[in-house]
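In response to reviewer comment 3 from the previous cycle, which asked for concrete evidence that the modeling workflow produces usable outputs, we include below a single protein chain processed end to end. The sequence was submitted unchanged, and the resulting structure tokens are shown without manual editing.
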Amino acid sequence: MQTIKIKEEYRSRCSGFTLIELMLTMALIALLSSLFIWNIQALLKQGELEALQNEMWGAVERAKQSAVFTREPHRVRFDLDTQAFVVSAGGEEIPFKVDTSGLGEDIEIEVIFKMVLPKDGYRLVRGELVTHREIETVTFYPDGTCTPFTVDLKIAEYESSVQIDPWTGSQLTQPEEES
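The workflow returned the following structure tokens.
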């Protein structure tokens, strides 16, 4: 009977969790939840970058189609004050406003259009080879072509660079690196 009594006494003492086990479990839950929240915030910012790209593509498509239809050049620029891509021709301006409601007030949007210099038109500036030059607007012509350009988009620390084919006005894909 003595051994049975000891086993019952042992069970009653060890039926719960120790303080160390509870603290480790709570620390693990806190760590996992903080990682989850950080990843959700990163996904939201990347979603904002995709929204910025979508507005840019909407403006590019509108300018390209309108230039061909009206037979006059159309220009696309980014207006920092209104946070919109603006398509302009003949005094008319059509804004493609970027939805910034999900962004904080301290987060800035940066859009830079750069003209691609011809292969033989590179410049050497302060010992550095320059292949792009910043431009204010991009022009789409009635024959369906456009200024050869690249657009750099940035929201917070997330950035994207899109190179546009001057003949088709569509995105050029980067060649895959061989390993």
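The chain has a mean pLDDT of 79. We consider this sufficient to address the reviewer's concern, and the full set will be provided in the supplementary archive.
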